[in-house]
Amino acid sequence: VQLQASGGGLVQVGGSLRLSCGVSGRTFSTYAVGWFRQAPGKEREFVAAITWSNGNTYYEDPVKGRFTISRDNAKNTVYLQMNSLKPEDTAVYYCAATTKMYYSGKYYYSPGNYDYWGQGTLVTVSS
Q1: Closest-CA residue to 97 (of 32, 49, 50)
Q2: How much is the pLDDT for 27?
């Protein structure tokens, strides 16, 4: 499975961006796709995840109500719509895929539970 993240850029506070994650290769083995971010000097943290088949979604608290994760199965693409952006959203955003089905959503929050990673796209929110 290969992942390609895109859509990052420079945006002002309160603005919006939409990130895309193209999934290729053995896409039928992908159970869920997640977005993570890593700011300078900080650990990689969970942002959101979506299951490929039934579209269940999971969000970290700081982005709830501002970010929306969605998928287009026909295009093998997962999106992260980011609205009301804040300076603390500045980070490199990564998408990742897992081939495992977890019965509890809490497992999608851990980067160690993902098998494949994209290269990352930089989001900078300026004040």
Answers
A1: 32
A2: 76
Between the alpha carbon of residue 62 and those of residues 80, 86, 102, the distances in Å are: 14, 10, 23
DSSP letter, residue 26 = S
3-state secondary structure of 111: helix
Q: CA angle at residue 42 from 38 to 46, to 5 degrees? A: 45
Angle at 45 between CA 40 and CA 46, to 5 degrees: 145
DSSP letters spanning 62-97: GGTTTEEEEEEGGGTEEEEEE-S--GGG-EEEEEEE
CA angle 17/79/2 to nearest 5° reads: 120
pLDDT at residue 26 is higher than 80: no
Could you give phi then psi for residue 124, rounded to 5 degrees? Answer: -125, 125
Nearest residue to 99 via CA among 78, 116, 81: 116
